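Quick one, tokens below:
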């Protein structure tokens, strides 16, 4: 296991911890382009594509526009549902193994909406979820309020996705690292991969800052840097980082029962370890370490619009976490074997669902590495589908 950092932070730590079979609709969907353009003129909006002459961004954007179709939504629904359900099952199995205690809770998630237009869309989606066999139920404001006694809901209604779950990522990741170390996996940390040497369409060596490594099979799982890694082996996959922010509210005076998503504001709220984590925004732009306080303000301002008795102060910049969601142009992850390089397996591009989809992606990659039948059909996840 080679990583360029010391593994104490990455996109997999500060995320909202939601396990989401409910997310069977990819980001690239009809209506997203028009909505995205409107949001681009609002500095506090939850979605933003940074205008730039960066060729990777332009090429990614064109592919995104081409993918935002009803056909993409239809084709992706079953593979996204299945990989999510497989992952949830694996989390359930993992949570009872010795060495794991990552606060897995199966209360589902709530989608809250305020406007008629979004109510219509969300209820339609809930019916679609039901037709896919997922446990989802539209609720009136009163029914939702009964499930959330401490919070005053200012909403038109809700959908309760009981099929979803949540966990505490900051506990999960160190436990996974320990588990692997105990199983004999060697970690090379603070050691970026810098060059890949190939011969006859096979990776011969991975050259890092501190050494070089040979392997029968190489798995690339580099998050938002995945396309840079594959490029070293001559494989082009389109991917852009989607920056998001989160912050914790310790000792909240109003306890939240069920993780929630504010649909219009695209803000997520998750109870975690006695605290509450707030998160959101999606800034599509090359990796950068700037914290845009206007977008954080957008998250803070959305909260009392849905939870009217919750007042949140703007957090100090030093307490704001950010991470880069690895986004594919069609909103479907890359999990599979490279057709171009024989011994290369690729796992990434999980965008808003990487915490959810980690276990299933790992299992599928392990099955491919061992030459076994995969647990599900992975055609939709072909990493070279844009080549
Ligand atoms: C605000 C926010 C909220 C989110 N909420 C949720 C949620 O509720 N549920 C959910 O399922 N998902 C959520 N996500 C998405 C999820 O966090 C990501 O999809 C997931 O963490 C991506 O995991 P990854 O392993 O692909 O990338 P990362 O966790 O970023 O890991 C990639 C690793 O690759 C390493 N690397 C890169 N380049 C090199 C190199 N050259 N050499 C060596 N190492 C390298 C990096 O150092 C890093 O450790 C959220 C994301 C954000 C930003």
């Amino acid at each position: 296991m080679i990583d360029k950092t010391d593994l104490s932070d990455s996109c997999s730590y500060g995320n909202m911890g939601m396990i989401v079979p409910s997310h069977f609709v990819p980001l690239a969907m009809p209506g997203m382009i028009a909505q995205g353009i409107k949001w681009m003129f609002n500095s506090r909006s939850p979605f933003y594509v940074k205008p730039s002459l960066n060729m990777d961004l332009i090429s990614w954007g064109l592919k995104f526009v081409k993918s935002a179709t009803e056909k993409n939504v239809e084709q992706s629904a079953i593979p996204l549902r299945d990989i999510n359900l497989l992952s949830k099952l694996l989390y359930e199995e993992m949570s009872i193994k010795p060495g794991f205690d990552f606060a897995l809770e199966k209360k589902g998630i709530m989608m809250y909406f305020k406007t008629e237009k979004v109510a219509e869309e969300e209820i339609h989606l809930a019916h679609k979820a039901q037709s896919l066999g997922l446990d989802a139920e539209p609720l009136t404001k009163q029914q939702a309020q009964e499930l959330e006694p401490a919070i005053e809901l200012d909403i038109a209604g809700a959908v309760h996705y009981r099929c979803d779950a949540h966990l505490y990522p900051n506990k999960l990741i160190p436990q996974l690292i320990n588990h692997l170390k105990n199983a004999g996996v060697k970690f090379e940390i603070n050691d970026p991969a810098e060059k890949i040497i190939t011969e006859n369409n096979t990776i011969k060596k991975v050259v890092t800052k501190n050494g070089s490594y040979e392997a029968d099979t190489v798995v690339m799982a580099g998050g938002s840097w995945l396309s840079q890694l594959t490029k070293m082996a001559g494989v082009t996959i389109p991917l852009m980082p989607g920056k998001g922010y989160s912050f914790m509210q310790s000792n909240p005076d109003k306890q939240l029962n069920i993780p929630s998503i504010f649909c219009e504001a695209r803000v997520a709220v998750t109870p975690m370890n006695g605290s509450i984590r707030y998160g959101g925004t999606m800034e599509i732009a090359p990796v950068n370490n700037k914290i845009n306080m206007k977008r954080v303000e957008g998250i803070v301002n959305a909260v009392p619009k849905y939870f009217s008795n919750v007042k949140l102060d703007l957090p100090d910049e030093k307490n704001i976490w950010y991470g880069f969601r690895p986004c594919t142009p069609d909103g479907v992850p890359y999990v599979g074997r490279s057709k171009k390089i024989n011994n290369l397996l690729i796992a990434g591009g999980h965008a808003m669902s990487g915490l959810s989809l980690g276990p299933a992606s790992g299992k599928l990659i392990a099955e491919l590495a061992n030459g076994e039948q995969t647990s599900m059909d992975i055609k939709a996840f072909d990493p070279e589908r844009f080549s």
